[in-house]
Automatic annotation (TrEMBL):
An individual GO BP term: nucleotide-sugar metabolic process
UniProt-recorded name of the protein: dTDP-glucose 4,6-dehydratase
PANTHER family per the UniProt record, alphabetical: DTDP-D-GLUCOSE 4,6-DEHYDRATASE-RELATED
Domain NAD(P)-binding: 4-325
Catalytically driven reaction(s): dTDP-alpha-D-glucose = dTDP-4-dehydro-6-deoxy-alpha-D-glucose + H2O
Organism encoding this protein: Ventosimonas gracilis
Xref: Gene3D superfamilies: NAD(P)-binding Rossmann-like Domain, UDP-galactose 4-epimerase, domain 1
Stretches assigned to coiled coil: none
The entry's keywords: Lyase, NAD
Length: 336
């Protein structure tokens, strides 16, 4: 199968491509405009791989010719602006990329798909990769968001992803384009951009700088190791049912404070030479700061559907995932 992956130089996209090229026979066309959050180095080992092709292009530009030239059997749409803090500062950028860009990609995919022969048309899929944030705040509830839970986005980022999901469903309903949607929880692991919580805390701690935590640190997220997410996306594109949505999570709810403490403990284990000279070690660097505007207190996903239908479940525990992540960043530091 030839897969066209938008945003393939991003954190999740590059993890997906690494997994595909190392573990499957699928070929990959990576479409990425290389924003500040892209990291081509994450795919450097595969630049000469016979099943890999990179194209620098914005999803906001016409894509029809590109689709017809490369003839993908499926599209996995990951290209997006993702950082919530940035969406509060520049919501227009998120609207442009996540909404208008998605509409442009859907329209290009529609015309390409309509021109395929009967057999290839029947096999074609477009996977819209979304987020648990579209379901809004689940604080104070015992339940978790299911695939049929109503949307209630809080931030401009979440709203832009919700809009992209609605557009994908509209293109299926109106034009027949075969759509599948996935919603994942918070990802972490190697190659994540430095603006995100875990790599930022690792970097700050190693420099002896404060580890800022919003509010009281009690916001809860479900933490998913990025390789597990990649495996899930492959399962969905290979075996998922058209018109369905699949939640992807690790059943690993942690407060922000617990995550940062876990990072500190891993650093004490793997990099004690960097530990600050105070009784609390790295944990003594934790600093609580003013909360983010409209900060949701809890995201939680019910993942029974993907476990039951597609026989997927997360393999990495949080502790092992954090250990691997910290060790990877330390190795990067030592090779610079």
């Amino acid at each position: 199968m030839k897969l066209l992956i938008s945003g393939g130089c991003g954190f999740i996209g590059s993890a997906l491509i690494r997994y595909l090229l190392a573990n499957t026979a699928h070929s990959v066309v990576n479409l990425d405009k290389l924003t500040y959050a892209a990291n081509p180095a994450a795919l450097a080992d595969f630049n000469q791989h016979p099943n890999y092709c990179f194209i620098k292009q914005d999803i906001g530009y016409p894509l029809g010719q590109l689709f017809f030239q490369h003839q993908p059997d499926a599209i996995i749409h990951l290209a997006a602006e993702t950082h919530v803090d940035n969406s509060l500062k520049q919501p227009d950028l998120f609207i442009k990329t996540n909404i208008n860009g998605t509409a442009n990609l859907l329209q290009g995919a529609r015309y390409y798909w309509q021109g395929l022969d009967h057999e290839r048309k029947a096999r074609f899929r477009l996977l819209q990769v979304s987020t648990d944030e579209v379901f809004g705040d689940w604080a104070g509830r015992q339940l978790k968001a299911s695939e049929t839970s109503p949307y209630a986005p809080s931030s401009p980022y979440a709203a832009s992803k919700a809009a992209a999901d609605h557009l994908a469903r509209a293109w299926q309903r109106s034009f027949g384009l075969p759509i599948i949607i996935s919603h994942s929880s918070n990802n972490y692991g190697p190659w994540q951009h430095a603006e995100k919580l875990i790599p930022r805390c690792i970097s700050q701690a190693l420099q002896g700088k404060p580890l800022p935590i919003y509010g009281n640190g009690k916001a809860i997220r479900d933490w998913l190791y990025v390789k597990d997410h990649a495996r899930a996306l492959v399962q969905i594109i290979e075996k998922g049912r058209v018109g369905e949505s699949y939640n992807i999570g690790a059943n690993c709810e942690k407060t922000t404070l617990a995550v940062v403490n876990a990072i500190c403990q891993a650093l004490e284990k793997f990099a004690p030479e960097y530990s600050p000279n105070n009784p609390q070690g790295f944990a003594g660097l934790i600093k609580f700061i003013q909360d983010r505007p409209g900060h949701d207190l809890r995201y939680a996903l019910n993942v029974e559907k993907i476990q039951t239908e597609l026989h997927w479940q997360a393999q990495e525990s949080f502790n092992s995932g954090i250990d691997k992540t910290v060790q990877w960043y330390l190795n990067q530091l030592n090779t610079q």
